[in-house]
Amino acid sequence: MEFRTKVTIEEPHFKVGPRKRMLFVGSCFADNIGRRFIEEQFRATVNPFGVMYNPASILHTVERCEDTPDVAFFTLGTNHIYRLKETGEIVDNCQKRPQRLFSEEELTIDECADYLSQAVEILLGCNPDVQVVLTVSPIRYAKYGYHGSQLSKATLLLAADRVVKRYDCCTYFPAYEIVNDELRDYRFYGEDMLHPSAQAVNYIWERIADTFFCDEAKQYLVEWKPIKEALAHKPFNPDSAEHKAFLEKTNQKLEEFKKKWNIL
Q1: pLDDT one-digit tens code per residue, 192-247
Q2: Residue 81 falls in which region: left (phi positive, over 0), alpha (psi -120 to 50) or beta
Q3: Beta strands in 21-136 (DSSP E)
Q4: Do the Cβ atoms of 6 and 204 come closer than 8 Å?
Q5: CA atoms within a 13 Å half-sphere pointing along the CA-CB vector of 172
C-alpha cells in the first residue's frame, strides 16, 4: 500500500558520463547540488560569479563564463529582478547597497523564457552538443508572501516548459515537484522551514543520479564511495602506526582510482 505519490521523471535523451564538463548556475539550490557533484569528483563548475536567482542573472553568468560545458544545469529561483535606477541595468547582487538605489520588478513568462533562450544559444554556439537541464528551486520566498512566492514559481515553471519545448538540447528536471509533492513534510526542510534539508538535497541528488547517469558513471560512484569514506575517517589516534598504514593504503587506492578514471 502506497502512502505517498512518487514524482515520475521522463527518461532524458542523454546520459552523463563520469568525465563530462558540467556547469551549475542558479539559486543556492544549484550550489547545494553542484557541490555534491564536486564532492563526487565530477568536473563541475558551480556559480563561478556567485549565486544567480533569476533568468537574467543566469544569462549574465553564461555570458561571462569561459569554460565550455558538456552539460549545464540552470536552477531558477525567482522571477524578481533589481535594476540600478541610475543606469537601468539588472544587477546580479545589490552588494548591500541602499535599497533606494534599486527598483524591484517581476519578469514575465516571455521575458524569463527569452533570457534563458539567450543563455542556451550562447552555450550552443560554444558547443553544439551541449545539454541543458532546467529546474526550478523548491526554496520558498517568504518575503514575497507565500501566494506571491507561488506565483513567482509558476512563472518560472511556465518559462522553463516553453524553453524545453523550443530546444531539443533542453530537458526539465522536477526538483520543485519532488520537494513539494513527494517530500511534502516539514521534516524535509531546514530550521527556517523554507530551504530543503540536507536529507532532501541528498534525495534529489539520488534522483538526478538515477535519471541522468550512464552505467559507467554509476560504476564510477561505486568505486569512489569507499575511498571517499576512508578519506573522511577521523581516527582516535592519528599518530598510531595503524592509522599511518591506513592512510598509505587509502592514498594508494586514490592514486589508482585517479589513474583509472583519468582524473587530473
Answers
A1: 887 888 899 999 999 999 999 999 999 999 999 999 999 988 888 888 888 889 98
A2: beta
A3: 21-26, 43-46, 71-76, 80-84, 90-91, 102-106, 131-136
A4: no
A5: 23
**Mean pLDDT, the chain, integer:** 92
For strands 102-106 and 80-84, give the pairing: antiparallel
The structure's pTM equals 0.92
* Cα gap 95→74, rounded to integer Å: 23
Q: Which amino acid is at 77?
A: G
What is the model's pLDDT at position 96?
Answer: 81
**What percentage of the chain has pLDDT greater than the value 70?**
98
Q: Which residue has the cell 558540467?
A: 22
128-150 core/surface letters (b: 16 or more CB in 10 A; e: else): eebbbbbbbbbbbbeebeeeebe
